[in-house]
Amino acid sequence: MRTARLRTVHPVLWAGWAALAAGAVLCVIGWYGVSGERYAERQLPYLASCTIPGAALIVAGAVLLTHGRSALAATRVEELYGLLVTEPADAGASGPAVTAPLAVSGDLLMVPGGTLWHRADCPLVAGKAEAVPVDAKVLAGGELGPCPICEPSEETD
């Protein structure tokens, strides 16, 4: 999964850098041509043929780089999410990998100093000795938010 997505992202990044470089070269050539001409009517061809397309390439390169970097970040987030919600390969079970959230328990837990409340079998708090039951006052006060992984509900407790 990772290499297939990254192969589609890297050409976009390379195209962005190439467009930025070509745009910079065209702007320098246009500036050099304009600087050698005294009259505005002789400067316009340099502006039209080099500087304006160079500026357009710089903008296009910036857009491609932004898109490529956001796609790369999205790929990394998907990979990390996949690692979080799937069972390890050496767990001994030969069943299919779990792709849905793992937590279904009715007990609600929180980690002191944390900002989220979780179900007891949420992978983020499962096995943590410091996890404590959530107090109803804390839930009612709105100090904690629900975990986006196990998606607990207040009615569960």
- Please write the string of helix (H) and strand (E) elements: HHEEEHE
Secondary-structure content class = alpha+beta
- Quick one: overall form? elongated
Number of helices: 3
Distance between the termini: 38 Å
Strand content: 5-15%
Mean pLDDT: 76
Structural description of this entry:
- By secondary structure, this protein is an alpha+beta fold.
- It has three helices and four strands.
- Strands 3-1-2-4 form a four-stranded mixed beta sheet, with no helix packed on it.
- Helix 1 (2-35) packs antiparallel against helix 2 (40-85).
- The two termini are 38 Å apart.
Essential attributes:
about 160 residues; alpha+beta; single chain; about 5% strand
Brief write-up:
The chain has 157 residues and is of the alpha+beta class. It is 55% helix and 7% strand.
Present the secondary structure layout.
Elements: H1 2-35, H2 40-85, E1 108-110, E2 116-119, E3 132-133, H3 136-141, E4 145-146
Parallel strand pairs: 2-4
Antiparallel strand pairs: 1-2, 1-3
Helix pairs in contact: 1-2
